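INTERNAL AUDIT FORM
Audit reference: QA-55
Scope: verify that the stored structure record matches its stored sequence.
Auditor: D.O.
Record contents follow.
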Amino acid sequence: VQYFQRAVFESHPENQPPFDVLLSQLGKFQLEHNKSMMAGEKPDYPGAKADLTGAGATFPEPIINGKWIPTYTGMYSGVKINYQGIGSGGGKKQITAKTVDFAGSDSPLTDAEFAAVGGPDNFMHIPWVMGGIVLVYNLPGVTTQLKFDGPTVANIYLGNITKWNDPAIASLNPGVNLPNNAIAVVHRSEGSGTTDNFTDYLNKVSDEWKSKVGRGASVQWPVGVGAQGNPGVTQLVKQTSYAIGYVEVSFAKSNNVAYALMKNKAGNFVDATAANVSEAADGVLKANAVPADLRYTITDSPGANAYPIAATSWLLTYVDQPDVNKGKALAYFAWWAVHDGQAFSEALGYAPLPKSIQERSEAQIKRMKCGSGPCFP
């Protein structure tokens, strides 16, 4: 306004009366603008000023480190957040030892792990990311998107299927010229929530897998070579002809690695889209299969379009926060992540939290205690 005033009166002194009215209106606009800025001004931190450290799952790393942290700390300069993707197993160990303020994990704590941190009265699982785990592959000369079903994937990882042109794979992919090459199997090398969900799915679709290998963040793999994290598996498959591996779908998309459609419980071949992952979650919710402590899985869910290897990633932390400032900062960040932060989900290949899960996350955040009172709001 000041610049406009000077320009008007210096350039057109003869027109002062008409411009008085205009400048009067501009002055009112400036006053109202200043009032609105003051009313909507955000502090340099919400809750409390703190530096937070977290570690764990690589599954949600693209959204946590790629979007959430830079966006949130860009809005609030008083909050610093450092998250290291070391795998869910590593995150669980560090939060149990209280060497981090929070952990990320794609697998809930086992009963033994839960007991070690005091159970549901002292420790909480807060769902904040959902996505699909896909079978990535490197098949030179094949441009058609492959199709798999659960038993076939289990047999590949059991070592029962060793060639790409095996009849089981060929029958699912009629018309595709599959090579007579050995399958190079890739799996995770460390404790992994992605592995826990993947093996949970294989447990449900293959009795042989269930009896010989079972479910877990770390298992005794019958075949294959290991790689660190979702990024490691993605790169090893990308660099190895005739390889197969399993990763969160965003890693496949961002690295332009081919991945397969999966046959679901309803008998349909489906992609790991946000809508199909959400349908998988809805199927579990409709079956009332979500316990109060929020330790659940959404693999092999019913639903016409439900993606069968869908997963949740949780924020893990304690009910009683040992540092009041950090606890408040963490609670406000978590609240933002399960609300505004969900807007980044679909573009990265994740699924926004269903409302009923979001409400459960809200309830968990409100349980967090900072000293004698709640951390949030």
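Auditor finding: record pair retrieved intact. The longest strand covers residues 123-137.
Action required: none
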